């Protein structure tokens, strides 16, 4: 549906991912140097001009599989390595957090405020590295430029596209359950109370007018909730009070998640975009890593097995898991980069092939039906 | 006034789309069909009136004979014409028309994506039967395609393209199909809240344009010459179709309205929104004094659910059905 979802998807999912990573890096006492490096590398990649420009091209939303792969590559743009189980759970958590924000978004255009909240916090996380802060600012300006002129209807289409993407995901997150924003069955709470969104009137009034436009009667009806007047509107500028709390960092403790069933079939068209994006991330990472320093592995979420191991008296996970980075990643990227041109060319051809048959097939069907 | 009945389970959950429920009552067979959109699939349930038999069918939006890429469906609606009932499915790729039980596709119209600017999404949305033999479908460019439908067979043709709206069509509605005579028999709404009132015919005539206020009109109905329009502000406006005079304004909901429906024999109005509430109202139109009355009758809250479809199951409004985002059931209510 909407062809403008990707930049907001990556800013918000990327943002949620960074909130969790930041919290877990602190909780596992990772050194400040390493933590800062991880943040800078990921944020630098996410907010790089090439990456953002690619996302800003009008295109359909990726499948879950593609999105998870790109986010994994993003996380691995740093010296940190996540095992697949950690990455799966990280993805589920970020998706559920963003789903909650989109679901409870007061007005469709408040999706921007949620995105800007994420950008605000990301800026804080990398505030000591001015190069990265500049990238964040540049991207933020670009987003403001592209999205400020969209109508409410277009934002709602964007929101509906995202809601379809999140459909049927009911992973229970302990933090959400504890704060009662999620029910035990995994569905989010939707209160019929509180301030109405900015620009909306509290329900309860019927007004009748005469043919000259003068009000002749007004009556009230029971609205069945306890709504109050709207609060002030959040700022859509580069800096400012966003007012709504959706999109702010709510992680104090890590969340435990239960696994869900897998998502649907892969989207063949998205595969080409995946390759292109992966190449972009890969080529950037190769530039940013001059020396073969050692990286570190981190388990974000304890599995049952790991809890047992800890109970046996071993020290905290991160320390004992440090070992040299595997340079296979760099090799793969070089190969992919060489393939970049070929893949882009191939994608353009495939796109053309795909577009042509639609008209012909329609005619064929009509002709066939007429013959029946 | 109403109480909840046993829900109908559907194969997938409903997607967050405007007007995401369509109902067709088939009295001779004592059946009612319901259709709900889930991403790229239409879930169709046929429910017998005695509540004992349910049968399910799924339709996908795909171009005939193209293996890959099903596309996202925007809306599905039954179109009741004097001679036949049809099911229309609108998606990002085009418009499909099926026999009303979903068994056979009788027509496929591909959307022309070539001259749309690539920065905009392309899709069809807004479906209504008009008069004896027309089906109107809206498009994201703002155009309305008018299809001429023969009384049987698949020789459906594109008769006219109405180009009045500049923003994506959200909903289209009509009244007076077949026998009755009306001055205006079609109304169309768009994402800017603009409304166009038409008279159908070999060449459709634009009778009136009611400007919007930069807020999407997501659902619209036409009854006794009155346009009933629901907006993203949660408000409902009632206009006299031909003159555009605003008769009434209701601050109906705290969030975006997703669905309106009218039971034509009783004047009951149903409104449903993202705020999880469904409301039943009564409309009275007095032609002599040219006045309209709106009375609130009933509320239903579907806890923690953003409602996306609500329809009366019969012309008197004795029963209505509701769908919600992420909900895999059709909730039903009947009068006590």
Helix content of chain B: under 10%
β-strand amount of chain A:
5-15%
Q: What average pLDDT do the residues of chain A reach?
A: 74
* Separate helix tally of chain A: 14
Find the CATH superfamily of chain B: YVTN repeat-like/Quinoprotein amine dehydrogenase
User: Structural class of chain A, please?
Assistant: mainly alpha
User: What is Rg of chain B?
Assistant: 18 Å
Task: For the record, give the distance between the C-alpha atoms at the N and C termini of chain A, rounded to a whole number.
Answer: 34 Å
Uncertain regions spanning at least 5 consecutive residues of chain B: none
| General shape of chain B | globular
Enumerate the strands of the largest sheet of chain A in spatial order, edge to edge or round the barrel.
1-6
The secondary structure category of chain B is mainly beta
Number of strands of chain B: 29
Helix-strand pattern of chain A: HHHHEHHHHHEEEEHEHHHH
Descriptive notes:
The complex is a heterodimer of chains A (372) and B (336). The longest helix of chain A is centred in the last third of the chain and has 28 residues, at 328-355. Chain A has 14 helices and 6 strands. In chain A, a hairpin with a 5-residue loop joins strand 3 and strand 4 (215-220). By secondary structure, chain A is mainly α. Chain A has helices at residues 6-27, 32-46, 49-56, 64-75, 84-104, 110-125, 130-147, 152-166, 174-178, 268-288, 304-311, 317-320, 328-355, 357-371, and strands spanning 80-82, 193-195, 205-209, 215-220, 226-228, 296-298. Chain B has one domain (2-63, 70-113, 121-335): Methylamine Dehydrogenase, Chain H (7 Propeller), CATH 2.130.10. Helix content of chain B is 0%, strand content 55%. Chain B is built from no helices and 29 strands. The radius of gyration of chain B is 18 Å and the shape is globular. Chain A: InterPro entries: OSCP1.
């Amino acid at each position: 549906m909407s062809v403008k979802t990707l930049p907001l998807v990556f800013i918000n999912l990327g943002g949620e991912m960074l909130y969790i990573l930041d919290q877990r890096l602190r909780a596992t006492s990772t050194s400040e140097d390493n933590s800062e490096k991880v943040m800078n590398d990921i944020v630098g990649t996410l907010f790089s001009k090439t990456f953002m420009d690619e996302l800003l091209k009008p295109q359909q939303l990726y499948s879950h599989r593609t999105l998870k792969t790109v986010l994994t590559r993003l996380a691995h743009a740093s010296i940190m390595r996540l095992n697949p189980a950690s990455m799966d759970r990280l993805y589920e958590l970020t998706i559920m957090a963003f789903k909650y924000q989109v679901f409870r978004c007061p007005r469709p255009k408040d999706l921007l405020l949620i995105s800007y909240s994420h950008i605000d916090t990301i800026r804080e996380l990398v505030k000591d590295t001015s190069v990265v802060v500049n990238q964040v600012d540049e991207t933020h300006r670009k987003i403001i430029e592209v999205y400020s002129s969209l109508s409410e209807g277009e934002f709602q289409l964007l929101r509906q596209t995202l809601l379809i993407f999140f459909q049927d995901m009911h992973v229970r997150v302990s933090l959400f359950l504890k704060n009662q924003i999620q029910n035990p069955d995994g569905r989010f709470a939707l209160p019929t109370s509180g301030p109405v969104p900015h620009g909306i009137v509290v329900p309860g009034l019927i007004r009748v007018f005469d043919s000259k436009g003068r009000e002749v009667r007004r009556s009230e009806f029971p609205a069945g909730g306890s709504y109050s007047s709207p609060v002030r509107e959040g700022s859509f500028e580069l800096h400012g009070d966003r007012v709504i709390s959706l999109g702010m960092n709510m992680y104090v403790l890590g969340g435990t998640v239960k696994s869900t069933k897998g998502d649907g079939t892969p989207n063949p068209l998205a595969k080409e975009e995946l390759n292109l994006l992966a190449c972009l991330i890969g080529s950037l990472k190769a530039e940013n890593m001059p020396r073969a320093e050692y990286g570190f592995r981190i388990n974000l979420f304890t599995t049952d097995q790991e809890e047992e191991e800890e109970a046996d008296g071993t020290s905290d996970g991160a320390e004992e898991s440090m070992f040299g980075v595997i340079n296979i990643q760099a090799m793969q990227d070089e190969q992919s980069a060489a393939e970049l041109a070929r893949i882009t060319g191939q994608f353009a051809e495939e796109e053309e092939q795909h577009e042509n048959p639609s008209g012909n097939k329609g005619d064929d069907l009509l002709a066939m039906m007429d013959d029946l | 006034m109403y109480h909840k009945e046993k829900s109908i389970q559907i194969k997938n959950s409903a997607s967050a789309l405007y007007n995401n429920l369509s109902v067709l009552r088939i009295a001779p067979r004592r059946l009612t069909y319901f259709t709900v959109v889930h991403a790229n699939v239409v879930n169709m349930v046929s429910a017998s009136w005695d509540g004992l038999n349910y049968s399910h069918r799924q339709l996908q939006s795909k171009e005939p004979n193209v293996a890959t890429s099903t596309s996202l469906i925007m809306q599905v609606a039954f179109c009741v014409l004097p001679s036949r009932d049809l099911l229309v499915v609108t998606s990002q790729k085009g418009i499909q028309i099926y026999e009303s039980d979903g068994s056979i596709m009788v027509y496929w119209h591909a959307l022309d994506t070539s001259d749309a600017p690539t920065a905009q999404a392309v899709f069809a949305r807004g479906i209504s039967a008009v008069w004896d033999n027309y089906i109107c479908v809206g498009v994201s460019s703002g155009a309305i395609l008018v299809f001429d439908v023969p009384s049987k067979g698949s020789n459906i043709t594109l008769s006219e393209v109405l180009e009045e709206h500049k923003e994506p069509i959200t909903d289209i509605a009509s009244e007076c199909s077949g026998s009755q005579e009306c001055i205006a028999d079609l109304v169309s709404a768009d994402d800017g809240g603009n409304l166009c009132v038409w008279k159908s015919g070999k060449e459709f005539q634009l009778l009136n344009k009611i400007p919007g206020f930069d807020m999407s009109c997501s659902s619209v109905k036409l009854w006794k010459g009155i346009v009933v329009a629901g907006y993203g502000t949660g408000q409902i406006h009632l206009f006299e179709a031909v003159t555009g005079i605003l008769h009434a304004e209701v601050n109906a909901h705290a969030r975006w309205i997703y669905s309106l429906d009218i039971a034509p024999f009783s004047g009951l109005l149903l409104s449903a929104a993202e705020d999880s509430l469904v409301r039943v109202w009564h409309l009275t139109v007095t032609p002599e004094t040219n006045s309209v009355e709106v009375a609130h009758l009933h509320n239903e809250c579907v806890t923690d659910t953003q409602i996306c479809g609500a329809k009366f199951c019969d012309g008197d409004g004795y029963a209505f059905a509701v769908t919600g985002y992420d909900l895999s059931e059709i909730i039903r209510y009947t009068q006590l």
